[in-house]
Amino acid sequence: MQRLLRGREFPFLLLMIDKFKVLDIVKDALEGSDKFLVSMKITPDNRIFVDIDGDNGINIDDCIELSRTIEKQLNRDEEDFELNVSSAGADAPLKMPRQYRRHMGRELAVETFEGKNYEGTLADCDEEQFTIKTKGTKKVLPQVLTFNYTDVKSAKVVLSFK
Questions:
Q1: Which one, of 113, 95, 101, 85, lies nearest residue 156 by Cα?
Q2: Residue-by-residue DSSP string for 72-97
Q3: In the chain, where are the structural domains located?
Q4: Whole-angstrom Cα distance, residue 70 to residue 40?
Q5: Strands 47-54 and 82-87
Q6: Hey, what CATH topology would domain 2-87 get?
Q7: What would the mean pLDDT of 65-79 be, rounded to a whole number?
Q8: What residues form DSSP beta bridges with 50?
Q9: pLDDT in tens, 124-155
Q10: Widest CA span of the chain, in angstroms?
């Protein structure tokens, strides 16, 4: 495949895939299900990364189904691309309120932009903020802490292997 650019031929010059086109495909595919888009990235060399989550979790079949749907609607003759569809991951930071609702009652590790770290049980959340209850120690009383999403650098579910 060769493209003309200012009268010169450049072999293998690729046009970047339209992010909004892929976004529309993903949204249409997930509409009406308990699955939702967490993040999407398209690199200049047309590597597409789609992370999804679900109110009841995600399995490999969900990722395969979405991957096939996206591939069917993109034309490889016009757009050369690499596609990666995956779940948000158990150790990935929570990125949206819907993910917080899914993890209600679980332990979170929270890091603020001020560099402070907290750990506690997710007790409440809405579209603007979330609340954790810390356990406390012999020296520190348990606390109820509320954070605005915009003030949090990272919030991750604490994985327990008991």
A1: 95
A2: HHS-TTT---EEEEEE--TTSPP-SH
A3: 2-87, 97-157
A4: 13
A5: parallel
A6: GMP Synthetase; Chain A, domain 3 (3.30.300)
A7: 90
A8: 40, 85
A9: 999 999 999 999 888 989 999 999 999 999 99
A10: 75
